């Protein structure tokens, strides 16, 4: 069996002196590693935040473009539907067809009025 080396008073004094210093050095190293890791993580988080902001802005712009296109197409279709219903009402002269033509024209006019208000609001925003 291997016996431990003899422990002398000098060895005990050195251990008593070096142990707190070793603990202090380890604590400093841990703090430095933590700061390095935190700054690296913070930098990466900032990069992700910037990238996410750019992607969100691109998506919002694309959604706005699609919304404008859909509203434009809807306005055209409502106008065509109203015209077709008015033509049908003139040919058939039935009360149901005339009522359908009135409703279709009202829907088209309502859409156009709302779209004009939105367009005016966008122009006012762009001018500022």
How are the SSEs ordered, and which strands pair?
Layout (H helix, E strand, L loop, with lengths): L8 H84 L2 H33 L1
Describe the protein's architecture and organization.
- With 128 residues, the protein is mostly helical.
- Helix 1 (9-92) packs across helix 2.
- The protein has one domain.
- It has helices at residues 9-92, 95-127.
- It contains two helices and no strands.
Please supply descriptive tags for the structure shown above.
128 residues, mainly alpha, 2 helices
Element-level helix/strand string? HH
* Shape estimate: rod-shaped
- Return residue spans where pLDDT drops below 50 for at least 5 consecutive residues: none
Global Rg: 39 Å
Q: Main sheet?
A: none
| Structural domain count | 1
Given helix and strand content, the structural type is mainly alpha
What's the short story on this structure?
The protein is mainly α and 128 residues long. Helices cover 91% and strands 0% of the residues. The chain has one domain (18-123).
């Amino acid at each position: 069996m291997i016996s431990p080396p003899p422990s002398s008073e000098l060895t005990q004094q050195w251990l008593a002196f070096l142990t707190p210093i070793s603990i202090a050095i380890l604590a400093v190293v841990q703090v430095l590693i933590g700061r390095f890791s935190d700054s690296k993580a913070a930098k990466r988080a900032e990069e992700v935040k910037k990238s996410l902001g750019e992607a969100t802005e691109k998506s919002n712009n694309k959604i706005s473009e699609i919304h404008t296109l859909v509203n434009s197409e809807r306005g055209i279709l409502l106008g065509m539907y109203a015209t077709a219903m008015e033509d049908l009402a003139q040919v058939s002269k039935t009360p149901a067809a005339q009522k359908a033509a009135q409703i279709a024209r009202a829907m088209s006019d309502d859409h156009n009025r709302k779209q004009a208000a939105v367009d005016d609001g966008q122009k006012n925003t762009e001018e500022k």
